[in-house]
Specification:
2 domains, 74% helix, 363 residues, 2% strand
């Protein structure tokens, strides 16, 4: 047993929740951002501003036409797998072999591909690391083992994992349609909390293919956390903190939350208010790429996702036009209400002595 533990340590194989559900999941979201999300943004910008070289076909593969943006989006599987491998500290041959593994697991996982990629890439990475540099023909053995394990698992498990993830997302979206107030609150609060925790709300939303009203509630919850913390801590952190949290991430407050969990109450209550408003009053749907549901105001990706969904809905006839009410709802839910409600709620905790000056100061 000791020799096995020493082997795992030597190979930097750490079987832990932190490495797999925090490190790998967060890295997967970055891979999604650098492929699927960037591709969507490029396509949206090209279409809305009539930029020819962004909307023209640049490649035709197996009869499918690709623009610059769709080429980037098509690489989401390999990008996610490589990002996961990087988080798991894979040696080069394993990391590069994950390109094939990511493509296979994402393609076979269907709409639930991101969850399949997470599961398969982690296992393939660890097997690859285990055999890395153990033989004199490492350049053959390591890629063969990594790809063989990855392709085999993709063929055996990816379709089922993808279906399960898609079904879970479908249940959440159906429940939100049936009970928009209750589910709007639940989804908003839960996804908002996940955004601030050191896990990836974006990757989770992508894995579940979370769109529609549930996606809109998720966007609301994320914005409540990001904008809420940014404005609420402006006195302590100034403009730099406003920007780093408001269009960066509220995860920066995690250290302060551990010291005083009560600072988290105001953003959570704000998300509990804005989520139902998004679903019941403004009927805000996020029908862009699912990863956008868990991004909030980070790079304004959540808002771009909502807007690109409007555009797609108008194009396919689901929506007649983008209305002024749509814009009012988006601005109120994502920016104004979090900026107003969160500090107001926090004043009550400050008067009670639950929150003190300096509690949200960023290092």
């Amino acid at each position: 047993m000791n020799s096995f533990k020493e082997f795992l340590k030597r190979k930097n194989i750490e079987i832990s929740v932190n490495r797999y559900l925090v490190g790998a999941l967060s890295a997967m979201a970055q891979g999604l951002f650098c492929s699927l999300l960037i591709g969507t943004i490029i396509n949206t910008v090209g279409t809305q501003f009539h930029i020819g070289f962004l909307t023209e076909t640049v490649a035709t593969i197996s009869g499918i036409e690709y623009t610059v943006g769709s080429l980037a989006s098509a690489m989401s599987g390999p990008a996610m797998a490589c990002a996961i491998g990087y988080a798991l500290k894979c040696p080069p041959l394993v990391l590069f072999s994950l390109i094939t593994v990511g493509f296979a697991s994402n393609a076979l996982g269907g709409a639930g591909g991101p969850l399949a990629v997470l599961f398969v890439a982690i296992i393939a990475s660890e097997f690859g690391k285990a055999v890395s540099k153990e033989t004199k023909i490492d350049i053959l053995v390591t890629p063969l083992v990594t790809i063989a394990v990855g392709i085999s698992l993709s063929a055996l498990l990816a379709p089922s994992i993808g279906k399960i993830a898609l079904q879970c997302g479908a249940i959440i979206m159906w429940a939100t349609e049936q009970q928009p107030f209750i589910m709007g609150m639940i989804v908003s609060v839960v996804v908002g909390i996940l955004l601030t925790l050191p896990v990836s709300s974006a990757a989770i939303c992508a894995a579940l293919s979370l769109t529609g009203l549930a996606g809109g509630a998720a966007v609301a919850g994320c914005c409540a956390q990001m904008v809420g913390f940014a404005v609420m801590s402006f006195k302590e952190n100034g403009v730099g903190g406003l920007i780093s949290q408001g269009i960066g991430t509220s995860m920066l407050q995690m250290g302060n939350i551990i010291k005083n969990p009560k600072i988290w109450i105001a953003p959570i209550l704000t998300s509990a208010l804005t989520g139902p408003l998004a679903t019941c009053v403004f009927k805000m749907q996020m029908n862009g790429t699912p990863v956008s549901s868990g991004m909030g105001t980070c790079g304004f990706v959540g808002q771009i996702g909502v807007y690109s969904g409007w555009v797609n809905d108008v194009a396919n006839g689901t929506k007649s036009a983008i209305t002024s009410m749509d814009w009012i709802g988006l601005v109120l839910i994502c920016f104004i209400l979090p900026a107003v409600l969160c500090p107001l709620i926090n004043i009550g905790w400050w008067k009670l002595g639950w929150v003190k000056d300096g509690d949200m100061k960023l290092d």
